[in-house]
Give the backbone structure.
Amino acid sequence: MSEFDQEPDEFSVHEEREDLTQLWVISYSDFMTILMIFFLMLFAHRVWEKKVSWEERRVQQLRAAQEAQSGMVQRLSKLASVDVQAERIDIQLPDALLFGSGHADLQESAKTLLAKLGPELNHFNGDIVVEGHTDDLPLSAHSPYKSNWELSVARAFSVITYLTAQGADPTKISARGYGPYRPRVPNLSAENREMNRRIEIVLLNQRKT
């Protein structure tokens, strides 16, 4: 028998089988790696699509909110003095239009004005703070209030009571009184004191997230 007719020994056959097994394992491992990368790419693409979609919706919502606020400011400006700042909108109402001297009961002219402001405030999504301000002149001896500070709080409370009766959300509206301690201008003349006697309705914009 020639050397070519000899059967391969057991070691050679075993070695060939191991080589084939290793090749199969390597191919399978490569396939699983490629498959995993494929699914990771699909997942990343889905996440990216969702993020883009969320950002687009967020931009649309912000634009709609800005347009709605711009329209609201224009309408409010026809009724009162409005000061727009980055995070708040101040609606300034003169004291003489709202209350009698030294009193906190709303006059009919005040109710008429607040009734016009009410629908705009009811649609505002942020918090609303009603601030009462007075001048620095002492109250008369017959005043039911001990100080301008107390009077300013009572006036602010009268306003929020009326606004909530008109439909304002009581969980989003509050009253503050500052008395003479936050004047717009120095209390050096009758004209300046008239400017300092006021109610400010402050609309606080919701913080962007």
